[in-house]
Amino acid sequence: MWSILKREVKNYMKNPLFWLGIAIGVFMIFQNVSPYLKIHYLREGETIVNDEPETYADRDVFHGYVPTEEGRRREIWEERIREVLISVFKMDNEKAQSVIDEMKGMDVMAACAHLEGYGFYDAYYDYEATSIRKGTSEEINSYIAEKLENRAFSYYFSRKFADFAGVFMGFFATVSLSVLFMQDTRRNTYELLHTKPVSAGKYLSGKVGGGFAVCLITLAALNLIFFGTCLIATRNSGFEIEVHLTDFLLASVIYILPNILMIVSVYSLISLVFKSPLPAVPLLFLYIVYSNMGSGNAEGIYGYYGRPLAIMVRFPGRFFDTVPPPMILLNQSFLILAAVCILFLSMQIWKRRRVY
Questions:
Q1: How far apart are CA 135 and CA 48, in angstroms?
Q2: pLDDT, position 12
Q3: Cα(219)–Cα(213) distance, rounded to whole angstroms?
Q4: Taking Cα atoms as reference points, which of 100, 68, 101 lies closest to residue 84?
Q5: What is the Cα gyration radius of the chain?
Q6: How many helices (H) and strands (E) are present in the chain, helices listed first?
Q7: Comparing C-alpha atoms, which of 210, 302, 287, 240 is closest to residue 2?
Q8: How many CB atoms are located within 10 Å of the residue 95 CB?
Q9: What is the number of other CB atoms lying within 10 angstroms of the CB of residue 174?
Q10: How many CB atoms lie within 10 A of CB 53?
């Protein structure tokens, strides 16, 4: 087992394309997480200037936006509704105001349903857009301080890192592991392997362990690189709580490693069933697409809520408000269990084809 594992790791380490892949991954991840490294306490007289709307749902604190207070949010939304009724639906001021008055006492969903009676079907999206607003320097600093009161900056940043690193590792593992079983599934080699005194457990443990170890080394390198980047970038941010490497490691272990184990397990099964790993490539790409698709929640609102046995864990929310998808720990546990079952099935296939 160990000799097979070491051989696979050495083969990958000697391949320049492996290191090129890591370099591409570092660049891609940095392009996505670098804006969050700009978050800092605003100094006296410092402001964030932009010409964007007062409310903009797709903006974050580094753009100068903070969450809107609930009471004020309703006021901003109603004012936006009144403007649309006048400019788009060609109502006069009195008629538009009467529609707003009719909404008094209704909750947001009921008010949206009421507006649909006038042909206004985008009211809820306008409400979502009011979730954040431009803040003053004091409001931005107060918001950051509130979020960092009990959590380190790295707690939030590691989730964004896990988001984009998880996407990269999914594609990286799918592409790089496609050659893991390539040599062994060639006709002459495959038949020869089944005449050797090596058990199915040792062989598959070595191959799968080697592929998993390669991905683990890659992920460890990414953790160290972005931990160091985060540490340097936040040195003059004014944050009192330091950056923790354990936040990065914990996020990687929970949100990325089970996905990699599933990918390498699928490769083992497909390679032994079809005597070639290549059929697994399009299958895994479809699996990634499935895992990355959004869906609607109980209220019919479209977003990313995770999918059963998904091999992607996304954190698409604003920086300080990112939360894992519902039941993500259960899903990751099922992924590990499913991967183990797939490996066991692969061993049975190997045994049935053994030549004594």
A1: 9
A2: 86
A3: 10
A4: 100
A5: 26
A6: 14, 4
A7: 210
A8: 13
A9: 22
A10: 12
The neighbouring-strand residues paired with 66 are 133
CA angle 64, 70, 75 (to 5 degrees): 90
Report the alpha-carbon distance of residue 144 to residue 146 in Å, rounded: 5
Query: What pLDDT, on the 0 to 100 scale, is given for residue 342?
Result: 94
CA angle 141, 146, 150 (to 5 degrees): 135
Spatial separation of the C-alpha atoms in residues 130 and 123, rounded to whole Å: 11
Residue 295, pLDDT above cutoff 80: no
Q: What is the pLDDT of residues 154-208, one digit of tens each?
A: 999 999 999 999 999 999 999 998 887 666 555 555 544 545 555 667 777 888 8
Q: What is the pTM of this model?
A: 0.85
In this structure, what token pair is assigned to residue 172?
Answer: 């990286």
DSSP 93-158: HHHHHHHHHHTTT--HHHHHHHHHTTT---HHHHHHHTTEEE--HHHHHHHHHHHTSSS-HHHHHH
Q: What's the CA gap between 341 and 337, in Å, rounded?
A: 6
Dist CA 42 CA 329 (whole Å): 36
Rounded to whole angstroms, how far apart are CA atoms 131 and 65? 10
Q: Is the dihedral of CA 132, 133, 139, 140 positive or negative?
A: positive
Q: Tell the burial category of 130 from Cβ atoms under 10 Å away from its Cβ (0-12, 13-18, 19+).
A: buried
